[in-house]
């Protein structure tokens, strides 16, 4: 039996155990499997999946490269049900729901970056 299907099945049950600001521009999430994920907050804002940021009909990103300033910061983070996080950003944006699966896929730790590059 291959390890990849097991890993995906387990990821469906993963939830954040702890969410913390690592530094001014980095968010950290500890998942229930113990994985310590890291996220540049600018990347999270650029990857917002809401209809304001992604055209609902075409799927085209409405956020252009360089549009999000380096000073972007989350000012509030809320759990939405048992499936997503919602960020209130200092640019006034707050409509994006980030499903746990999306967040897990956006992890920028060394281990995840090398897996995604493979």
Automatic annotation (TrEMBL):
Annotated Gene3D superfamilies: 3.30.2020.30
Pfam families referenced in this protein's UniProt entry, alphabetically: GBBH-like_N
Every Gamma-butyrobetaine hydroxylase-like N-terminal domain range: 22-104
InterPro entries linked: GBBH-like_N (IPR010376), GBBH-like_N_sf (IPR038492)
Keywords from the UniProt entry: Iron, Metal-binding
Domain of life: Bacteria
The name this protein goes by in its record: GBBH-like_N domain-containing protein
């Amino acid at each position: 039996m291959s390890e990849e299907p097991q890993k995906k099945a387990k990821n469906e049950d993963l939830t954040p155990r702890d969410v913390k600001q690592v530094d001014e521009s980095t968010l950290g999430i500890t998942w229930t499997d113990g994985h310590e994920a890291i996220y540049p907050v600018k990347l999270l804002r650029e990857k917002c999946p809401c209809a304001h940021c992604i055209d609902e009909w075409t799927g085209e990103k409405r956020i252009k490269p360089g549009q999000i300033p380096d000073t972007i910061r989350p000012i509030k983070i809320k759990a939405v049900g048992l499936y997503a996080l919602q960020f209130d950003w200092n640019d006034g944006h707050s409509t994006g729901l980030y499903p746990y699966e999306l967040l897990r896929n956006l992890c920028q730790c060394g281990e995840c970056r090398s897996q995604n590059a493979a």
